[in-house]
Amino acid sequence: MIITACGNPVRKLGVSTDTFPRLPDALRNPRLALPGVLVVESTKDWEPGHRTLANETDSFPLIVLVDDSAAASENMRNFLWTTFTKSDPACDVDGFGAFTDHKHWGCTGPLVIDARRKPHHAPELEEDTDVARAIDAKIERLAARGGPLHGVF
Description:
Blueprint (H helix, E strand, L loop, with lengths): L26 E8 L2 E6 L19 E5 L2 H4 L3 H10 L7 E3 L2 E4 L2 E4 L3 E4 L14 H16 L9
Parallel strand pairs: 2-3, 3-7
Antiparallel strand pairs: 1-2, 4-7, 5-6
């Protein structure tokens, strides 16, 4: 998927969720990931195609549906990981006023990416703290010796 955003600004991007319209009951905990980029938790029974958000979303051209908006908006790494590893452009991207023009898809309103956990996704990986500590200690020992870390990873 390629998202193009070029040319002169066409809107002022939202920098606060206070200006976001009232959400339907199935959507909650809106958080700002970046100016104009909203992450919002969504229940499994809400689909982007329902179009239940109000049209006052002009200052938020990208809305990402997630399972945990606080975690997804905590930093750029979390946002990118959540958005682009838990969504499939073929079936998890929608938009308000969606259209196809000369085989190019577009939308006149916000782009909506469904980055919620799906039944076919592998279980979440959890870091083993003992293993992480052992690796960190090994790296510190190698670095303290002044030797190269080549081949360690």
